Amino acid sequence: MKQLTIISGKGGTGKTTITAAFATLSVSHVIADCDVDAADLHLILNPTVEKREEFYGGRTAIIDKDKCQQCDECIRVCRFDAIEDYTVDPISCEGCGVCVHACPDGAVTMERHMSGHWFISHTRSGYMTHAKLGIAEENSGKLVTLVRQHAKLIAERESKQYIIIDGPPGIGCPVIAAIAGVDLLLAVTEPTLSGIHDLERVVGVARHFNVPVLVCINKYDINHDNSFAIEEYCKKNELEVVGKILYNPEVTKAMVKKQSVIEYPCGEVTKEITKIWKRVEHRLSNA
Amino acid sequence: MIISVASGKGGTGKTTIATSLALYLGNVQFLDCDVEEPNAHILLKPQINERISVGIPVPEVDKSKCTYCGKCAEVCEFNAIVVIKKKVLFFPELCHGCGGCAYICPEKAIKEVEREIGVIEKGNSGTIDFIHGILNVGEPMAPPLIRQVKKYILNSKSAVIDASPGTSCPVVEAVKGSDFCLLVTEPTPFGLNDLKLAVEMLRKLAVPCGVVINCADIGDEEVKRYCESEDIPILMTIPWDRRIAEAYSRGIPLIEALPEYQNSFSQLYEKIRGEFK
């Protein structure tokens, strides 16, 4: 069983569109949506939830007003400015618990709180694990790890060949959690200066964690010079460019129809992504 | 006034809107709080004149004082410090810099030292004070760096904040304390889904918001319908325009590539002020 994560650095380059297309093209896989704070893949794959579980991320401090003597010690030690008027702001609270140890009156306790849900679902393109992080919650990295663990359990149980992971944008903790230990990454970029800048940083993260990367350029005809610059960058850094996808407004129509770009044919886009999947699958099976 | 620009979904045009709004306003601070993938400098091309290393305090154990009692490991909620027999192991990427270990150590054997997680660059783009944070590659935690970037906000000037996509901690850190948040979206199912999440987040943070619909003529009418039903003002709509996409791809701000948008940003700002009152 091999794992592939689709990443981008910059948001909105087409990760989920490509993941959904791969879900249609691949025949033996489990899908994991690891963009847990703004998940969108379910809008295309329309999952039927088979199992729904609560996610407990971290803990938050609570001050017992009856015990509190207002000595201000908790406020002094809190590095996250989370305590005001002897009340903890759960959004600012980092969950470190230093205030619990600092309080001479035993008025502060830590409480676990539910910070989201994760799901095992069935879709027309096979099993899918996904999650919904609670609003303004932390610990998205932990939730990503959980979604991946369950995808792996299902893939092993059902003898599936691949786990296809839709990654989050950026380079921070949820991205690191989504790429740690996978066999291959596909970085989806676009020919904008921002796209190139962000690609370089996300490739840096991939190298940091020693995961091989393939690159595909989406909407490559928006700026041919930049597309050429991306190819030059990739050549210099020994990164294979596995595909160049044209801009096509039909892609948005497919999304509105809740279909992947394979199910709702988008001409050259469909052809190119099919070619990309073949190359990715080849690399993945030899990883 | 602090105006933040967020979106939920990535790639909807946050940086396009934030930079052109700042250029229209002129005498403002611009803070790029998307420290994982900062891009505003590509459009604003600031002259950087100061670079500040940002770290978080992490423990350094004085072995001559340490009795390996294990209290530091007990207190650490993040499992960043572990004591095994006569060894203290420290995992820097897991450390949140809360200072719990140093606080609890009965032997005063733990001293805190700064570990760099990123840098802040300050400069000018015309009359705009430009500040951005750049998270070091491989670092997981963006919020402490975002907190430091926001410490540069002055009371004497308006500020425009560019946030990262999503709705979790880095975005919360970037937008909290704003007087108003602009949510840039596109009229597609993904745009709508993530807009709803962003609206919920802002309601929890008690930050008033309005919506900018970008690429307004693609997709469907659902975003408009949602905004109407939730009483969220639509402050600006921008049609899909190849010239805008091309200008962005070359790092040219919208308001410079298409000066006719000057008026749209003037109206946008007036509407924000109207909402804010």
Write the layout of secondary structure elements.
The complex is a heterodimer of chains A (287) and B (277).
Chain A: E1 2-7, H1 15-25, E2 29-33, H2 42-45, E3 48-63, H3 73-77, E4 83-84, E5 87-88, H4 98-102, E6 108-123, E7 126-133, H5 140-157, E8 162-166, H6 173-179, E9 184-189, H7 193-208, E10 213-217, H8 224-236, E11 240-244, H9 250-256, H10 268-285
Parallel strand pairs in A: 1-8, 1-9, 2-7, 2-8, 9-10, 10-11
Antiparallel strand pairs in A: 3-6, 4-5, 6-7
Chain B: E1 2-6, H1 14-25, E2 28-32, H2 40-44, E3 47-61, H3 71-75, E4 81-84, E5 87-90, H4 100-104, E6 110-125, E7 128-135, H5 143-150, E8 158-162, H6 169-175, E9 180-185, H7 189-205, E10 209-213, H8 222-230, E11 234-237, H9 242-249, H10 254-257, H11 261-276
Parallel strand pairs in B: 1-8, 1-9, 2-7, 2-8, 9-10, 10-11
Antiparallel strand pairs in B: 3-6, 4-5, 6-7
What does this entry look like structurally?
The complex is a heterodimer of chains A (287) and B (277). Chain A has 287 residues and is an alpha/beta fold. Helices cover 36% and strands 26% of the residues of chain A. Chain A contains ten helices and eleven strands. In chain A, helix 1 (15-25) packs across helix 10. Chain A starts with a strand and ends with a helix. The mean pLDDT of chain A is 96. Chain B is of the alpha/beta class. Chain B has two domains: 2-54 and 118-276, P-loop containing nucleotide triphosphate hydrolases (Rossmann fold), CATH 3.40.50.300; 63-108, Alpha-Beta Plaits (2-Layer Sandwich), CATH 3.30.70. Chain B has eleven helices and eleven strands. In chain B, helix 7 (189-205) links the parallel strand 9 and strand 10. Chain B is elongated and about 70 Å long. Classes of the chains: A alpha/beta (287), B alpha/beta (277). At the A-B interface, helix 4, helix 6, helix 7 and helix 9 of A face helix 4, helix 6, helix 7 and helix 9 of B.
